Amino acid sequence: MLSPLKNLFAKKSKGIGIEIAPERINIAQLRRQGQVYKLDSYITEEVPEGIFEEGQIVDSPALAEMIRDTLDKNNIKATRIATGVPMRDSIIRIIPIPAELTPQELDQMVKEHEAGLYLPYPRDEVDLDYQQLGLFQDEDGIEKTQVLLVATRREVTDIYVETFLQAGLEVDILEINSFALIRTIREQLRQFGSQEAAVLVDIEFESTEIAIIVDGVPQFSRTVPIGTFQLQSALSRAMNLPTKRDTEMLQGMTIPNTPADGLRTGATGINPGMAALLRVLGELADELRRSIDFYLNQSVDLEVAQLLLAGPGGGIGQLDEFFTNRLSLPTSQVDPVAALSLETEEEIPLVKRPGLGVVLGLGMREM
Q1: Separation between Cα atoms, residue 317 and residue 338, nearest integer Å
Q2: Phi, psi (5° rounding) for residue 214?
Q3: Which of 15, 154, 308, 319 has a CA that sits 20 to 30 A from residue 232's CA?
């Protein structure tokens, strides 16, 4: 059986990008007109409760039926798709390999020897792919090549492939969601130098995926169990409202410009719901600080240039100012529509744009 990740770094083909998340599916079909990208189709549908549990697909037939119905309802005829798995289900490592190896020797060494040193699972239980990066000299002056290794447990890739097969679709590309997001904003990432790191903060439904990126390559990754659901749940409980999976309420919020120590001393003039929301955001900021400090302590002559907020929670009003004040780091909300100079038939609100990064990146793989 061929690895479902075998096309992770392959060339583009023709199809659609489908992002699967616990709360919704997003579908995008793009095409290129000269130097401009045009969004032919963008569809988002809410995923009913019970299809996912703790971020994992538990009802594959129901999800497959939903995907098929959504495509049919919107008259989308593509049969090949690109999709992604969450970063938390994957292992991403940069490993050094002797530079003098032939391509065949490199392949054998990565897959049969080196991979096993970096995987927390038996080699025969994962699907993996790799990409050769640049050359460097180690501390002994020996020339080596950096290899980006990506692996996912086979039980995870199997459930994704099986779900789409049940929906009558062929998985052409199966990659990591964060790679798709990086592809979407790659021009923005190019503004940073080789000694500058960008911290990509992808605030999803049940978690936040943190990726520290240097020269367009993720060097460090971590998943924190704080997402839009946890944010809205805290808000709802404080206001004595029922907790709902629909987090649309968050997109109408604006985070007040509160001093960094305001949460600890008790800021005045903030309603209980906002105070609860700020406390959870404070916890997320603390996790971000720990991740950044951990990485910088292992890296020489490297500084964090900017935090980039993405995902469904990345567009919350003034969230960039909150993290700038809390972490003393420049922070901005990504805008994939502007980053790609994307032509759309309908205007996409700014608050929703950070949540389009993954699905647009997947769609770019299938133009």
Answers
A1: 18
A2: -130, 130
A3: 308
